[in-house]
Amino acid sequence: MGRVYDTITAANKPLHALFDTGAVHNYIAGKAAQELCPRFLPKAFNVSLGGSVRKISQVCFVPGEIQGDYLYFLAYVIEEIGNDESGEEIDLILGAREMQVWNIRIDPKEEKLDLTHFRKKFIEY
Fold first, then answer.
1. pLDDT tens-digit profile of 76-125?
2. Which of 8, 11, 12, 47 could serve as 35's disulfide partner, Cβ 3.0–4.6 Å?
3. What is d(CA 72, CA 100) in angstroms, rounded to the nearest whole number?
């Protein structure tokens, strides 16, 4: 199974997003986060991502849209994420936790997103 990418639009800019079921959290590249007003964390921490240790000192609220549906999430800011297999810069990693919150699924056979169960309402009991 290959990696699954799609576009999330935030602040009227398309972000090349990797939907990563192996990542728990969300990450956004520093350049992509600039217009979203990242905030400094009270204390920085390190995370191992993509085979290297990255220092996390900022978080960013991302109000976004994917295929016509709105979603909102927090993403940790990292300097850069890297490039996909075709050389395109990855702006955002959406992790498994957020995918579960929004009912975003991966279709492994087609190597694309399955948004048929995308959560449009949140009901608390």
1. 999 999 999 999 999 999 999 999 999 999 998 899 999 999 998 887 77
2. 11
3. 13
